[in-house]
Design brief:
By secondary structure, the chain is α/β, with parallel strands linked by helices. The chain is 43% helix and 14% strand. This is MarR family transcriptional regulator.
Length: 325
């Protein structure tokens, strides 16, 4: 079964057709990304490998920059950092595909551009990422999303991603030639309920339980997957908060790869949650002082206070136990 979905050229607010820069060393992946971007209505500005792009004149980037980076070396990381800076200043949208092995190094390169990072993606996931970019084009947005709907949209995007991957697996011809489909979702930053925290005297503020106590709760949550379908209990935001709370108690640093594993969902999905939680002020990026190209993730002070209050409310203290989390 094969389908060919074509769309009219996509234009910016000034009426100019939007352009795309495609960078990938793998010929097959580069051709796929170019095909899908053209099908979505973008004009291809440049399509080449990393070395060719790095050695050429530093011309204008497209409105969308699609990058596939499976293996990293110092020259590659330097190029990614330059792309992050250029896109952050110009407003170009970045979609970066990488592998789990290279994730920590690649993640640390992107702090300014708000890049979408996809981990070991299939073609369907790349198409969905292009759709998320199109959702930001002013003349394509149908309406602003209500504050209370943003979390629902993020969850819906996860379900659509899973469905797209299954459909792609059922349609061998889809990946060989034909266009792909476009699925767009609004990408406004989800905000946590409540704009500020209630501050009290430090002496009255509860403290986080010991790290081993929180780890015991995490293990209890993970045991459910032994008896039930793990997707019944998928709650990546909470699993991320628990893992970071344990790390905070242990005064340990958490890399993004470790946090993706702790989230219990595909790495690309976990990265979307991490990005949303950083944007909402629940989490923060901390540059690695030993290697500025890398970054760690941690709870903000306000989130740490809220987690401590939660544990106190369910009566989990330094030596406490919890019946259900």
């Amino acid at each position: 079964m094969q389908a060919d979905f074509s769309y009219e050229p996509v234009h910016d607010g000034a009426g100019c057709q939007m352009s795309v820069t495609v960078l990938a060393d793998r010929d097959g992946v580069r051709d796929e990304m170019r095909c899908d971007a053209e099908a979505a209505g973008f004009r291809v500005l440049e399509c080449c490998g990393f070395d060719e792009f790095a050695s050429g004149a530093s011309g204008a980037l497209g409105d969308l920059v699609l990058v596939d980076c499976g293996e990293v070396d110092p020259a590659c990381l330097a190029l990614l950092s330059r792309l992050d800076m250029r896109c952050g200043k110009s407003g170009a949208q970045l979609v970066v595909s990488t592998t789990m092995e290279a994730l920590d190094a690649v993640f640390g390169c992107f702090a300014m551009s708000g890049a979408q990072i996809l981990v070991d993606p299939g073609r369907a996931e790349r198409v969905i990422a292009i759709g998320r970019v199109l959702a930001d084009v002013p003349n394509l947005r149908l309406r602003e999303l209500a504050e209370e709907d943003r979390l629902m949209v993020l969850r819906l995007t996860e379900q659509v991603s899973k469905l797209a991957a299954r459909l792609e697996g059922l349609s061998p011809g889809q990946g060989e030639g034909g266009g792909a489909f476009r699925l767009a979702s609004p990408v406004q930053d989800w905000k946590a309920s409540g704009d500020h925290y209630v501050m009290v005297d430090a002496a009255d503020a509860p403290q986080l339980p010991r790290g081993d106590v929180i780890r015991k709760l995490i293990r209890a949550r993970q045991l459910r997957a032994r008896f039930f379908d793990a997707e019944l209990f998928a709650d990546p935001a909470w699993d991320i908060l628990l893992d970071l709370a344990a790390a905070r108690s242990e005064r340990a640093q958490v890399c993004v790869t470790s946090l993706c594993i702790a989230a219990g969902v595909p790495a690309t999905t976990a990265l979307r949650w991490i990005s949303q939680m950083v944007d909402s002020g629940l989490l923060m990026r901390i540059p690695d002082p030993a290697d500025r190209r890398r970054a760690h993730i941690a709870l903000t002070d306000g989130t740490t206070d809220l987690m401590a209050r939660y544990f106190a409310a369910v009566e989990v203290g330094a030596m406490g136990e919890l019946q259900a989390v």
